């Protein structure tokens, strides 16, 4: 009878030990799962931080592109100003050439009058025709000068307006891109803050749960150790009873 009782106690102890071992394995599996989830959340957070850094670099490149475009526009404005100055200089030179031509023409008339008094009338008529021709050419040139200046100025103004429009379009595009990037950065920052908060809360909950789980594991281990000792003692007692 005592042997039967010892065997029944040993069987119950073995069943309890098996159950505790299963619970301990389940607790360890849950702990590993929590660690794996925490690692995955941290990896996602690092990925988002990398994406944020890349977005900030793109915004910096856009700003540099805008500065380069601004510098290019200033260079074009300076080139346009130099062209206008060059047109003014060309007009002054043309007027000076005309004045020199008129002076040379008058000198030629005086020289002809001095050298050819005999053919005065004929030469006078010829010179008159030449004077008329020169005057007509001079008037034509005088009439062409404002048109040339106006045409050049108009062309330069049109080019300037086109460049200014391109600059405005480029600035609007850069501003839109900056706005989109800024929104994206703010969204990513909010998402990162939320994930960091969630990760912190999850870490806190996991740590609390892990502490609780460790305590339970320790308690179960103590119970298992105690039951193991009881099992050993029961086996020893059973051996003694069998020997008796």
Helix content: over 70%
Number of strands: 0
Mean pLDDT: 79
Largest sheet: none
- Spans of at least 5 consecutive residues whose pLDDT stays below 50 are none
Distance between the termini: 13 Å
Shape label: rod-shaped
Radius of gyration: 52 Å
- Return the structural class: mainly alpha
Query: Which range does the strand content fall in?
Result: under 5%
List the keywords:
rod-shaped; 244 residues; mainly alpha
Would you give an account of this structure?
The chain has 244 residues and is mainly alpha-helical. Helix content is 98%, strand content 0%. It contains two helices and no strands. Helix 1 (2-115) runs antiparallel to helix 2 (120-243). It is rod-shaped.
How are the SSEs placed, and which strands pair?
Elements: H1 2-115, H2 120-243
Helix pairs in contact: 1-2
Q: How would you briefly describe this protein structure?
A:
Keywords: Coiled coil. It is built from two helices and no strands. The chain is mainly alpha-helical and 244 residues long.
């Amino acid at each position: 009878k005592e042997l039967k009782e010892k065997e029944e106690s040993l069987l119950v102890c073995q069943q309890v030990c098996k159950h505790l071992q299963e619970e301990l394995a389940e607790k360890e599996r849950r702990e590993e799962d929590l660690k794996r989830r925490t690692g995955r959340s941290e990896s996602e957070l690092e990925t988002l931080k990398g994406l944020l850094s890349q977005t900030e670099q793109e915004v910096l490149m856009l700003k540099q592109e805008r500065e380069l475009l601004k510098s290019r526009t200033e260079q074009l404005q300076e080139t346009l100003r130099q062209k206008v100055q060059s047109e003014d200089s060309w007009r002054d030179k043309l007027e000076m050439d005309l004045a020199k031509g008129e002076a040379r023409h008058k000198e030629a008339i005086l020289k002809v009058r001095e050298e050819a008094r005999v053919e005065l009338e004929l030469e006078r008529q010829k010179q008159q025709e030449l004077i008329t021709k020169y005057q007509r050419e001079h008037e034509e040139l005088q009439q062409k000068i404002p048109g040339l200046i106006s045409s050049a100025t108009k062309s330069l103004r049109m080019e300037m307006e086109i460049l200014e429009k391109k600059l405005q379009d480029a600035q609007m595009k850069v501003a839109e891109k900056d706005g989109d990037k800024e929104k994206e950065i703010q969204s990513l920052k909010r998402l990162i803050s939320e994930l960091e908060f969630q990760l912190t809360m999850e870490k806190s909950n996991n740590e609390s749960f892990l502490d609780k789980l460790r305590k339970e594991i320790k308690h179960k281990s103590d119970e298992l150790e105690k039951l193991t000792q009881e099992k050993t003692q029961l086996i020893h007692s059973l051996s003694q009873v069998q020997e008796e």
